[in-house]
Amino acid sequence: MKEFHLPLFDHYGQPCEFTGTRTGDELLDGALVADGREIGKVRRGIAAFPSAHDEREPSIQAFVEACRKGNWISHNWQNEQDCSQIPGRARLCDELSAIDGPILEIAAGPGGGNLSPILHRFPNASIVVNDILTPFLEIWQDQLVSMGVGPRVSFAAFDARLSPLSENSLSAISSNGGFSNIVGDKSQAVREAVRVLKLGGRLCISEGLLDIDELIRLPVELRDDYQLEMCLAKTGWGSLFEEAGLRIIWHDTTQGRALTPENDGVAVEAAKHGVTLHMRFEYVIAEKP
């Protein structure tokens, strides 16, 4: 973790301090402390804050192991660097690359969100890469170190619904499917995003939307599991951000594509009931007024 990113974090308004080993501006191993209490740790240069996710769960460990063996992150770094064939996403990344201030890449996962295209456009971008699972951040950190890129990139593991970032601290928040992948109350993650953005800060997102007519064909018990997805299918992510207090600057959507059971867990359950789900992508640039 970069020492210059430490002031972005606090605990109920109390500033975050680091005690432990460091090299230059790199915080390596130690404790993150606020108001005399430990609120997180730094291990191998990655900040980690408490969450309900247990990384020892066999399913999580299997997912991480598949990521390592398949070199997903290395492939994603290469494949994601040029998004010019997707005009909506290219516009988002151009916007983010012009921001000279701290950017949060939210719920990056093995895909990395917009990390690769931003760094290929602006190698000196100041970015905090977030995910709830530390192992993915470790692999991403190793990837950047091996290539000698991202001199102003830090990594922080935390639940985006309970952000340890300070109020009004970020110039921008980036997401390429990150909000969609957050488990639990996504609207709470949106409220936290608004809280930590500076006045005039930008939220730049590319998120998937399912088709409402297909969702209502699912059995009631499945529909209950996807209440927010059904709401978003009707109103879109843009409306959710407006309700949270942001001003929409630019908005676009793409046509839908079919989700296959081989590549999507929701599609697996839908296929059992004879429903093929389609997803379209919504691109939004919003500002905190």
Quick structural summary:
By secondary structure, this protein is an alpha/beta fold. It has helices at 58-69, 72-79, 87-97, 115-121, 134-147, 178-181, 186-196, 212-215, 220-225, 227-235, 237-243, 265-271, and strands at residues 10-11, 14-15, 17-23, 26-34, 37-43, 46-48, 103-105, 127-131, 153-157, 170-176, 197-210, 247-253, 257-258, 278-287.
Give a written overview of the molecule:
The structure is a single chain. With 289 residues, the chain is an alpha/beta fold. It folds into 2 domains: 1-48, no CATH class; 49-287, 3-Layer(aba) Sandwich (Rossmann fold). It is built from 12 helices and 14 strands. The protein has helices spanning 58-69, 72-79, 87-97, 115-121, 134-147, 178-181, 186-196, 212-215, 220-225, 227-235, 237-243, 265-271; strands at residues 10-11, 14-15, 17-23, 26-34, 37-43, 46-48, 103-105, 127-131, 153-157, 170-176, 197-210, 247-253, 257-258, 278-287. The strands form 2 sheets. Strands 3, 4, 5, 6, 7, 8, 9, 10, 11, 12, 13 and 14 form a 12-stranded mixed beta sheet that branches. Strand 3 and strand 4 form a beta hairpin. The protein is globular and about 55 Å long. 40% of the residues are buried.
